[in-house]
Structures are given as C-alpha cells and as structure tokens.
Amino acid sequence: MSVPIRALALAAALPLALGAQAPRQQGGPSAANKAILSSEGYVRPPAVIERMILAPREQALILRDPSPDGAWMMDSLRGPIGSVQVFGRPHYNLGGLQIDWQANRNRTLTDRGAPRLRVVESATGTVHEISAPAGATISAPKWSPDGKRIAYLVNTPTATHIYVADVAGFKSRQVSSTPVLATLVQDVDWTADGRYVVAVVLPDGRGAEPARATIETGPVVRMVTPATKQHTPTFPDLLESPYEKQLLSYYTTGQLARIDVTSRAMQRIGKPAMISAVEPSPDGQWFRVTTMLEPFSYVVPQSSFGSREELWDASGKVVSVISNRPMREGADTTAGRGAAAAPDTARRNFQWMSNGGLSFMQQEPAPRRAGADSSAAPDSAAAPARGGAGAARRMDRLYSLAAPFTGAPTVLHESNARMSGAAFTADGKGAIVAENNLGTGALYAVYFAEPGKRYPMLRQRGWTANVGGGGGFGGGGGGGGGAGAADSLTFYTNPGSLMTRRAASGATEAVTTADGRYAFVKGTRYFKTWMDSTPQPFVDRIEIRTGTKTRRFQSPANAFVEPIALLGDDAQKIIVRHESTKDVPNYMLMDDATKGGVELTHNTDPTPDFAALQRRRILVTRADGIKFWVKLTLPADYKAGTRLPGMFWFYPYEYTDQAGYDRSVRTENVNRYPVAAPRSIEQMATQGYAVANFDPPVIGVAGRMNDNYIPDLRNNLSAVIDELDAQGFIDRKRLGIGGHSYGAFSTVNALVNTPYFKAGIAGDGNYNRSLTPNGFQSERRDLWDARESYLAMSPFLYADRLQGALLMYHSLEDQNTGTDPENSIRLMHALTGMGKTAALYMYPYEDHGPLTKETILDQWARWTAWLDTYVKNASSAEVKALP
Fold first, then answer.
1. Of all helices (H) and strands (E), which one includes residue 32?
2. pLDDT band at 877 (very low <50, low <70, confident <90, very high)
3. Is 717 helix (H, G, I), strand (E, B) or coil?
4. Is 291:306 a contact under the CB 8 Å cutoff?
5. 82 and which of 265, 811, 852, 853 could share a cystine (Cβ 3.0–4.6 Å)?
6. What is the pTM of this model?
7. Is the pLDDT of residue 360 over 60?
8. Nearest to 678 by CA among 46, 54, 48, 83
C-alpha cells in the first residue's frame, strides 16, 4: 500500500509516450535530448544545475532554538536531499496520514530525519555534534527545562526510540526499552523537574496487523441524503474500506508512558488509546491527553476526525473532560463557507502554570434576548464578543484550577472584551494579556494580587495583538479583499508582538528581565518604498508598569538583521541573523545592539553559481492600468540588449482591487541573499534563458474574482511579454511558460487561451474543474453556482486549442487537495488522441512537490531538454493567433 495499485501500474510505464509532433514545431529533439525525454530510467541534468541541486545546504548552521539557560543554541535539523531509497520504503496512506508501518511511525520521520544534531555555544560559536547511530536518523530534539540535556528520537529502519544527551560531554544513551509509536504524537516532552520524559509507546500485547480478507465480502458503499449533505473539498487518500479503518486504529493506538531518564524505568499510564497529543503537568503527575475518536469517515481526512481532550491522573484515570471536538463532517467543511460557528463560551487556551495548576479562559454567555425561544441552548444565540454601540458586553475571564482539578476555578483576571491570549510572568503572579476589540489591539499587564488593575503596555488601531508570536498585521501571500484599515499608516508603525518562551511548566511565559520589570516585543518595520527600503526587524523593551518603551535593537538599512534570542538575566545580549544581497546568512552574538560582536557561524554560499546570476525587478502595467511586479533572472554574463529565449514561471492569486495586490508585496525583502532551493526555476538562467517569476493578480468583485480569470490571464501575460520585449530582454517569438500546482493549471490555460508560447511545463496540477465541484483555491462558489466560470477555467475542455509542446509531471502520491494524478492522466489521454506534442512523467513515492534527488535531477534534465528543443531552438516564425 505504499503506492495505490493504479499508481504502481503507471509507475512501471514511466514516462508515458510522447505525442505526435505539432506541425508548426521545426525539427524535433536532438538525439541527445530525445534519449533524455524518452528514457524510462532516471536521467541527469546539465552539470551546473546538478551542482546546485546537490549542494550541501545542510552544512549551514541555522540557529533557532536556545536552551532555557541561554548557554546553547540548537541547529535546525536538516539532512541531505532525500533519496528514493528512503522515500520508497513501504508505507500506508490512511485518510491523509502516511505511516511507515515497518517502524510504527509517521512517514515524515523516516523521510526527513537528520544524521546528526548540532549544538552551538552561545558565547563562542563552538560547535558540538551528536551523531545518530549507524543507519539511523534523529528527529524532534527538545531541551530539558534546565538546559543541561536534550531528548530526541532516533529512527532506525524498524523502530523509533528515545535518546537523551548530556551537554556536558555530549554523551547520549537510549532511555526507552519499548519502541515509540510515532504516528500521531511525533515527539517527546519533559516534566518540569527534568526527571521524566513522556511519550506514546507501543502497547503491550498489541498483536499482529489486521489481515485483509483474501476475497472481498461486499461492495464499497457510500450514501448521502439531504440530511447528510457533505460539502467538502476534493480530498486525497481518504479511507476507502472497513479494512483501512482497522489499519488506522491499529497504527494509532498507543500506550502513554512516563520514563525516568536516569533509571530508564517506564510507567504505563492508563489504557492504550488513539493518542494524538499529550502534555504533562510540571510535576509529571497529571496529563492533558487528546485522543482521536471513532467513528471514522470516508468523506473527510483523518485530521478532521473527532477528538476529546481529557485530564488524566498518573494512573490513567480520567479526572475531567476538557473539550470534545466532533468530527468536522458538516455540510460546509470547505474553508470560508457559512458553516455554523461553534459556541464561543467554551473553555479555551488551556495551559499548565508554574504552581502546578491549570489555567484557561472562558467567556460568559450572551444575555437571553426578550422573546427568545426558551428551549434553545444557552450558547446557541451567543452574541459576538464585540459589537457596536449599545451591544451587550460579556465578561471574559482567565481562570486557574488547582490539583486535583475537581473544585471550582479561581478567577485570575476578567475583561469586558474577549482576550486572545495571555503569557504568565516568570513567578506566575501576573500575566501579560492580549486583547483585540473594535479594531484596536492592546497588550497590558495584570498582577493577580491587584484585581481590576491594568498596566497598559501597547495599544494601536488596526493592529492585531497576540502573545507567543504571530502578532502583527499580516500582509504576505495572495487573496484578500479591497482597501481597508490595514492600508493605513498603522501597518508601517507595527508595534510588534510580545516575546515569549515555553516555561518549564509548559506555560507560555513572557520574556522579561530577571527582576520582572521589563518585557520585550519583537516586530518588523516596513516601508511603503519597499523596493529600496529593506524591512527592519526590531526589539523594544517595555517597562511593564509604566508602558515606557525603549528601542533595544533595530536592523540597519543596508542589510537584513533579524533578532533570534535575548540572553542574560537582563537580556543585555542578543543573537542575530545577518544577511544582505552580498552576505550569506550568518549568526552573531552582540553585547551592544548597535555594534558588532562575536561571529557564531561561518556559513558559506552552497550555490555560488546561483548567486552570480543577474536579477531585476520590473513593474508591469496591464492595459487596464493594473500593476504588478516581475522578478527577472538573467545569465551571469548577460549583456544589455541581448534578447534571450524566455521562461515564465507563475502562480496567479485573486484580489478585489489593486490595493489588495499591493498589500501582498509590501513585506518583500530586497536584501535577502540569493540561495537556490533544489527546484528554484531561476536555475534555468544558467542555460541561457531569461527567467520571469511572478504572481499575477486576478481581480474582480469579492466572491466572483474568477469570473475574470481568463481575460486577466491573457492581459497579465500580454503585459509581461510587452514589457520584457520593450526593455530588450526577451525574444518574444521564443517563449516557454510553466508552473506548479495552481501554476500548472494556469500554464495549461495559457496554452489553450493565448498564442504566445512555444512550450509549457506543468506539474501536479488540476486541469478539469468539474473534478473540484465544491470549490478550489479562494473560489467558494460550487460548480452549480458558477458553472460558466468553472467550465471556462477548465483547460481539459479546450485541449483541442492547445498550442505549444506541453510537458507534464505529477507525483504519484500527491496529497494536495484537488490535484489528484488522474488530472494529468486524463489530459495526456486527450492530447494523445489529438496528436498534440506532449509528455507526461509520473514520479513514484513523491508528494505534492518532489523531494528526492533522483526525481529532482530527472525533472531538470527533462525540463532543459524540452525547453531547448521547443523554445531555445524553435522556429523564429511568428506564432499564429488563436482562431
């Protein structure tokens, strides 16, 4: 079951045959390119591209995880680029959960572990290395509360075990005797005293895997009635049979265990269950346990199955039920549709406290309206947490509950606006609270011995206050509506978000000075003139009781310097990450935030060939006045005025107006150092192409933007071609186009709706919108609400109009919603029937976006051969207009 039976049959026939040559293409592939394009084994690209793909990126240090005492920084775990020898290990796809059944773990741990763990001394940059046992990898490292040890998972071919390393000497040893069940819970946790680690292990007496019946016992059954309407996206790899339900239960049922890291003695807690999350109390005597619930579903993935969060004692007895989440299998499970909201009066934001108690928030119900149906549930008519003038205010409260968690909770703080989060002070005697009300965000401190008193710290209109990171204004990515408050000057005066850390108790704790007098916020200052003004990360120190703010650090204007960690009792030292267009990212310890310091890392550029390429940012204006940006990459030796064959790579997004698009680019950082990812399309510039990468806007009325998809597609592409032609970069008669996922979908649409391109490359795409009838991307209408748009946007229906040579690739285990490999198979079938020039390459073991070196090298080999044949060496005759 590592690959569906259907996919295995196709994998054996890779690649599918080329179609007939289109009449207007001159000649055909050279003998060398033909050998590459027709090979049924993995092939290799030009040497410079292979060098960039295989560059040892994992050698660079990326410091992100400081030890609790600040003495050490842990390197982000990364291994070399993956291999089909690992990705091809047998595994099950069960409702979106991929399981390496031989090792009883999530497939991600098998595929993406690292051969070593590196730890860096914060004061000197000295690197210490912990190697995995031979043939194994390391995953999920976690500091002990005192920063003296690290617990981590070691993944062997047949099992996962827990190891603990001492940072004094960096000696490690296995502490688990029973293998970990790492299918749902994929890490370990410490108790606050550092004595125990908590994990889910294989249950005793588990028995053999369920056996599949030799002969099926009945048909596959699916039923729906008006009462059981399921308006869902087109999910991949749903459960398909009672047998798969049995497998899912078998491979997710584990035993909660507490392991003494010194004696290695293991205590089993409670009965085996389908545990999906666990968090121990500071003393290790209580456990917040979340379990996945049956029944399972055939129409939504495992991540949407029901769950229950409970509080267990050390014997496994359920003390209380914290929350019940029913299966998300309602009539409107597509994002953004009008499903009934859950009541907002439930207990929320649970976290352990340093005193061993449990805190949570809860908002009181709305007052019953006069004449309301008295039979209705109290929560069913709950009013919004904030409203206009005259709206009833409902108190929101922060509570604590003491062990044994059966008594009445104590009110720590209450507010007449709904709180979004709270971070406790180090002594547990106060908290910094985030609140957002009527479009204004606020951070303020409370001390539990001073009920009713607040100490304002930050307050700003148009800002979303939060704790634990994530606060700010957003601004990246596509989608979104028209102009609004976020376009005002408030975005450019972002006050940041509260800096927090995970306390030994498990609580979210504010980063403060040792005396508790000051807290810190971290943010980024952006500029309207982003093209020549680099974003400037900053750290501010705020006196908690007065709100007095002092700028502790700000990135200079000529580089991008990002604060990573504050060190020392008074946070007088700071570790930063520094980069610019000329400087590789490296880390530094600064004693004074305005001066240089100790260089902690000495990373070098793993892809100098990529950095040497020439780059331009070009503003393009459509015929209707809409403007957008194109990133153009040119060969390193490019000479002005030289017209090159062009390769476009794009991914459209939907907006309601120009302002919506402008918001998506205002966080652009022009001072990043150019490092290639293995699949960066800009690498094609090394082969003599002008590479244009852009995210063009599709603009229309909110909820109906895609009514303009086809005309905006044409206008966007025409504008880019005209601008790059006018500036002398491209030969407009030799153009290719490509994209991945929605970009692939748009690539095939470009080939059937415009006459501009000699060839296209489309990967992991959808080409028939009738296969996503309940919505896609930001489209929330279904096929029957927007029939004309769905059909017009389906290039499969217009495949007879396709111009240019189309190369498709698809991952056989594509787990993305709406891009089943069937899309590429059927389009290839249609193109074969019409004698179009096309090829389809389907890659085993890969998900939505390939990760193995064999696949990525192979793709680049075929892409370059395809473009050299049909674009670079194509006829210079003018491309004919569509009829």
1. helix 31-38
2. very low
3. helix
4. no
5. 852
6. 0.91
7. yes
8. 54
